[in-house]
């Protein structure tokens, strides 16, 4: 039996309602009506009102027929015209019901540029919320650390010892490498300029002051942000995804005291010691470069002693203590707010490192301005 070509016609039914009648065999290889023909049919409906779709004249069909019906219904919807589908009494009805069960997703309005007033307002609002949440977390962490000194606290002192070992001795290899290299870099950069004036011996002053006041504390903090801060975020974030933090709350234990306080205290105890270690190794790295320039170890040490003032030393230690608190806050806060999935843990780890580095740069700039104003 020869297949009948598919066709469509828009005409009124017995009640006068505009109806699209489909007929023929809608199978592969048969030429289907062009989409422009449907648009012309809809344009002739005046005034635009509800239309019907009649499938009683359909013979054989495959996927071409449902696709054509959906195109017609979507076109009617785009024109604001209601389309009534008359049942065919076959599996075609079930297929169209399934295809139209979920309404089509409406196209989102194109967002304004990032320099628009709405975008700037939205970004400022988000920044304000993040600052507010950060300050609230800092307050909770401060209260938790103070509570840990009282009887009945949820913090376990064995955890504090473990975190001190992880943040202190466990970080010595990477701190050793970075500190020696930073000292050598400082010495080399200073030596290139001082050599032009015949003042190579003052490279010891540059390395000593640079390590004590700035590079020792800052480079140690950057390393610890990528090492320990990320570890804090991953550990607490994994506990969040496994509902362990909710279990602690159910047992009556404070997550801030049990998880955050020992990590914060451990890093605050270890960072000043690591900074002192980094300062010594940085000066040793500068001595290596100075020796290559012909400066004797005795001359380097004699010049270095003249700049080892207590003021420079205390500036670096005060920075290291503040940096430790900021790194712990960034890592623990990212972990506590992590999503309950593996992707959430990864995002929390990235957020912890990025946030900690931003905190370090801002805090370092602020402390340098403060020390300059007070003359330290």
TrEMBL record:
Coiled coil: none
Gene Ontology terms, MF aspect: phospholipid transporter activity
One GO CC term on file: ATP-binding cassette (ABC) transporter complex
Protein's UniProt keywords contain Secreted: no
Chain spans, region Disordered: 1-34
Keywords for this protein: Membrane, Transmembrane, Transmembrane helix
Taxonomic superkingdom: Bacteria
Transmembrane segments: 170-189, 264-293, 313-332
InterPro entries assigned: Permease_MalE
Name of the featured protein: Phospholipid/cholesterol/gamma-HCH transport system permease protein
Organism whose genome encodes this protein: Chromatocurvus halotolerans
């Amino acid at each position: 039996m020869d297949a009948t070509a598919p066709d469509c016609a828009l005409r009124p039914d017995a009640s006068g309602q505009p109806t699209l009648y489909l007929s023929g065999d809608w199978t592969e290889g048969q030429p289907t009506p062009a989409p422009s023909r449907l648009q012309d049919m809809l344009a002739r409906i005046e005034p635009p009102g509800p239309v019907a779709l009649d499938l009683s004249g359909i013979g054989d069909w495959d996927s071409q027929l449902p696709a054509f019906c959906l195109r017609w219904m979507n076109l009617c919807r785009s024109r604001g015209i209601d389309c009534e589908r008359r049942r065919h009494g076959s599996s075609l009805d079930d297929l169209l019901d399934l295809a139209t069960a979920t309404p089509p997703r409406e196209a989102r309005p194109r967002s304004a540029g990032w320099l628009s007033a709405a975008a700037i307002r939205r970004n400022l609002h988000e920044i304000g919320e993040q600052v507010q949440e950060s300050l609230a977390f800092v307050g909770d962490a401060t209260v938790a650390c103070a509570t840990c000194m009282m009887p009945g606290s949820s913090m376990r002192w064995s955890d504090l010892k473990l975190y001190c070992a992880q943040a202190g001795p466990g970080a010595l290899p990477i701190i050793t490498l970075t500190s020696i290299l930073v000292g050598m870099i400082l010495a080399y950069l200073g030596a290139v300029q001082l050599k032009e004036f015949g003042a190579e011996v003052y490279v010891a002053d540059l390395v000593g002051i640079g390590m004590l006041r700035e590079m020792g504390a800052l480079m140690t903090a950057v390393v610890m942000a990528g090492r320990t801060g990320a570890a804090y975020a991953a550990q607490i974030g994994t506990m969040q995804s496994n509902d362990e933090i909710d279990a602690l709350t159910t047992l009556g234990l404070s997550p801030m005291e049990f998880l955050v306080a020992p990590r914060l205290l451990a890093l605050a105890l270890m960072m000043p010691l690591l900074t002192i270690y980094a300062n010594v190794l940085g000066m040793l790295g500068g001595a290596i470069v100075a020796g290559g320039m012909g400066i004797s170890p005795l001359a380097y040490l004699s010049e270095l002693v003249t700049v080892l003032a207590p003021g420079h030393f205390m500036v670096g230690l005060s920075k290291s203590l503040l940096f430790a608190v900021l790194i712990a806050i960034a890592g623990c806060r990212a972990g506590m707010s992590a999503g309950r999935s593996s992707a959430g843990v990864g995002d929390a780890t990235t957020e912890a490192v990025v946030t900690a580095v931003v905190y370090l740069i801002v805090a370092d700039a602020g402390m340098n301005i403060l020390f300059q104003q007070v003359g330290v």
